[in-house]
Amino acid sequence: MIAGILGAVFLSLGLGLLIGLVLGSLYGYWRTRAEVTVEAQLKSVEIRSTSGAARSGGSRYTAATYDYRVGDKPFSGSKLTLFRPTLEFYQPLSAAYRAGRPIRVFIDPDHPQFSVMDRSFAWWPFAVAVPFSLGFAVVGAFLLWATWRAPGVGAGREV
């Protein structure tokens, strides 16, 4: 029973990491494959910290919001990058924000509400995230399989 619960948790974590980190970035990259850009005006730029950053050395990242138009329709966005860490964008974005200079953002021409400032491809997320997430998923699947195949589970006997 405990192996089955752990299996479900590991499988969920593995698939969640794979879908959230890897496939989400690839999908965003594919959506902006036409490399259509529009001018955007920055509305805010700041450095934020994940919870516990001050105590445990958690991560810091750049958060920004921007407005842009496609045709006569206004849109807002906040996605800065698909693959790279965002902290490196703070200095150039804050300088553009203070000067009132516009930035360029990539959009999905079929669904212009999707925008991203930087779509540069990087292999490092895949080199780390894919083996890590697949490892969790495989261990979880094996634990679920072993629990399901074990004789006597459900008859009150734990494996």
Record keyword descriptors for this entry:
single chain; 159 residues; alpha+beta; five-stranded antiparallel sheet; 5 strands; 44% helix; 26% strand; elongated
Tally of discrete structural domains: 2
What is the N-to-C order of secondary-structure elements (H for helix, E for strand)?
Answer: HEHEEHEEH
Number of E-type strands: 5
Give the strand order, joined by hyphens, for the main sheet: 3-2-1-4-5
Helix content: 40-55%
Low-confidence stretches: none
Which structural class matches the secondary elements?
A: alpha+beta
Shape: elongated
Question: What is the strand content?
Answer: 25-35%
What's the number of helices?
4
Largest sheet: 5 strands, antiparallel
Mean pLDDT: 87
Radius of gyration: 21 Å
What gap, in angstroms, lies between the N and C termini? 7 Å
Description of the molecule:
- Helix content is 44%, strand content 26%.
- The chain is an alpha+beta fold and 159 residues long.
- The protein folds into two domains: 1-32 and 120-159; 35-118.
- A five-stranded antiparallel sheet has the order 3-2-1-4-5.
- Helix 1 runs antiparallel to helix 4 (124-149).
- The chain is elongated and about 70 Å long.
- The mean pLDDT is 87.
Explain the layout of strands and helices.
Blueprint: H1 2-31, E1 36-49, H2 53-56, E2 60-70, E3 73-77, H3 90-99, E4 103-108, E5 111-116, H4 124-149
Antiparallel strand pairs: 1-2, 1-4, 2-3, 4-5
Helix pairs in contact: 1-4
